[in-house]
Amino acid sequence: MADISAQGGSSCLPIDQNGRGGPGGATLADRIRRELEAAIASGTLEPGSRLDEQEIAVKFGVSRTPVREAFRLLAANHLVELRGRQGAVVRSISAHALIEMFQVMAELEGLCARLAARRASAAQLARIEAIHARLEEVAATGDIDLFYDVNQDFHEAVYEASANGFLADQTRRLRNQVAAYRRRVTHRPSRISKTLKEHGAVIAAMRAHDDEAAQTAMRDHVNLLGDDLLDFLAAYG
Question: Segment Disordered: which positions (predicted)?
């Protein structure tokens, strides 16, 4: 199994064998789930990777019970598959299914941008623009992995500005399912420059409070069409 120790370091917090611990009394199963989810999203745990129940239990210094519960939570979010005696395996998604998921995600992200164009405060718009400026700085360094992470912050800021918690949660859940594959697309030539240009169109529409234009710009940014679809299939292969 891939090493997850670098994903946040949450296993250093005090815990107990009953699965309680951490700020606010969060269950250990939730904390293990969050760490594994981050490792899956980052690609540290690749699709098809087996999650070793005993290894994870040892890493956190607990029994297998909260680890099994964490696996169940990940399976409920379609991030892993539970295969009986084979244990838990990071979910692999076919190219066809991924394209369908990107289409749905594009609609959800577009709706977030539409609502943000109507509801975002001046402070929220300023934060979105500040993250975009940070993206431009990172792009100049050529650090693709950091660019991907800051790009996630950009989209999270749009979710927040939509002022619709349920929509934001559903969009985030789907995004997490395809995160490892989205990261591959970021590594394609010209993807970074396209991202900056497309984000600029989203911001301009939001600044103008043009909800329809914001929705269209974000939907086109996220969806896989034309050359972007070909780039994705090349990265996927």
Answer: 1-27
CATH of 10-90, one of 1.25.40.180, 3.10.450.50, 3.50.50.60, 1.10.10.10: 1.10.10.10
Q: Which residues pair with 50 in a beta bridge?
A: 89
Kindly state the tokens that stand for 102.
Answer: 């990107």
Domain extents in the chain: 10-90, 95-236
Q: Is the pTM of this model over 0.85?
A: no
For residue range 140-173, what is the model confidence (pLDDT) as tens digits? 998 988 999 999 999 999 999 999 999 999 999 9
109 within 8 A of 157, measured Cβ to Cβ: no
pLDDT digits (tens, 9 = 90+) for 34-91: 899 888 877 788 888 899 999 999 988 888 899 999 999 999 988 899 988 778 999 8
Strands 88-90 and 50-51: antiparallel
In terms of Cα–Cα distance, which of 224, 225, 228, 216 is closest to 113?
216
Q: Are 143 and 117 in contact (CB under 8 A)?
A: no
At a CB cut-off of 8 Å and minimum separation 6, what does 61 contact?
Answer: 11, 15
CB neighbours of residue 9 within 10 Å: 9
**Residue 116 CB burial class (10 angstroms; 0-12, 13-18, ≥19):** buried
